[in-house]
Amino acid sequence: MRSSSIIDPADLNPYGQNILMDHLKIRTPAEMLELMTVIPQLPKLVESIPWHIRLHWVMFIRKLYLPPIQAEPVATTADLMLRQGYSYRNPAEPRTWAQLAGYRTLTKLKAAPATAAVLTGDSGTGKTELLDQSFGLYPQVIEHESYPGIIGSHKQVVYLSVNVPAGGRSHDLARALGIQWDLVTQGTRFARFIDLKNPKGEQMLDEWTLIARAHALGILHLDEVQNLFHIPPVKERKKIRAPGQPGPILHISDDETLKWLLTFMNIWSIPLFFSGTPDGIGALTNRLSTMSRISTMGYFSTERFDSIDPKSYFRRIFFKQLLKLQFVKDPVPLEDIDKLARLVIDRTAGIQRLIIALWIAAHRVAFDRARASRSKVDNLLIQDFDNAANTYLKLLQPCVKALLSNTPDARSRYEDLVPRDDDFWALFWNRIETL
């Protein structure tokens, strides 16, 4: 009997010899979190930098990423999904190629279970960033000089993240998948998808999946799954409802897309990670009949900050780091820190994206105040944050109040409580950055 004090090297590699995992190091949770953390650095002697240059330094606060409490379980889940999926698709085994052959071969890989997970949360709470950082722990594309069953080199795509297009139609999703595939592989395999005059979504999705399987796609991330559904018109969303009455029902935009999702999970054996807002995830789970179909590996949520208690994550980690990112000679006075923490939560509803926006906008207000002053003032005050919320973030304050009210009726009046629209945020940041 082998001594319990001696570890067999083979026991440290549960997956054995599998070329798909040769370049994917199994990391400890601490290593994952360290690699996911991004902290922008202040320049030396901030007060000596001209205002118009300093503002550009401030914009780097947008790069700040501090792994939330959910980061470790989400990253670990993605890691397990990736490796478990590859364990059933070892290209060195003849059965793998036998079951991958054929244009419309939908034969399920032997003993490979459907694997999926869900990440939900209000828009702006960091869903996409969390999954981007989790997948970023791996190389996205691996170029193998030699590959079982293939003459010459071969590309392995470890992960692919795609936003579900607005409207959720199958051919639009196929186009999005094809465009993103060509982008990460630096190829043109799906270029013709863009100009098809009579696109057939089912055929396009089948063709894309064939290529994805052949190139050993490890995990597919579908973001903004609420786009699979019709959003009720504003008039419907603003109807006053009795307490406890559900909000507007979301309807699937294209049943062909839903059919493909079911096939993807049950037949194609490629792990799938969904992310989206609560209404979209709720509608998806209702249409898929049972929650177990899309959360076999876990159901996670990103949360808003709602406490300024010194022991809370917000105060211990996030807010503490933000306080270090004050690009002024004289930062907010220590006696005002508690008031500032409360103001930040009240004016952003604890949404990370809004907190960052408010922090940057407050600097803009402070810089404008300093330039207009005849004295050599170079500081940041609580009033700067309040003024920033009332000017730069004014458009978002009704959304913030709806979130803070925490009532279904108030929340249901908005399609998206914190706009994710690229045009909106591009205009916002341009306004902040332009002096």
Which fold name fills CATH's third level, the topology of the largest domain?
Answer: Rossmann fold
Q: What would CATH call the architecture of the largest domain?
A: 3-Layer(aba) Sandwich
Question: What distance separates the N and C termini?
Answer: 75 Å
Main β-sheet: number of strands, strand sense, barrel status?
Answer: 5 strands, parallel
Order of helices and strands: HHHHEHEEEHHEEHEHEHEHHHHHHH
- Count of strand segments: 9
Uncertain parts: 102-106
* Domain module count: 2
Specify the overall morphology: globular
GO molecular function, one term: ATP binding
Organism: Variovorax ureilyticus
Keywords: ATP-binding, Nucleotide-binding
Protein name: ATP-binding protein
What does this structure look like?
One of its GO terms (molecular function) is ATP binding. This protein has 435 residues and is α/β, with parallel strands linked by helices. It has two domains: 53-63 and 307-433, no CATH class; 71-301, Rossmann fold. The chain is built from 17 helices and nine strands. The strands form three sheets. Strands 4-5-8-1-9 form a five-stranded parallel sheet. The protein has a two-stranded antiparallel sheet with strand order 2-3. It is globular.
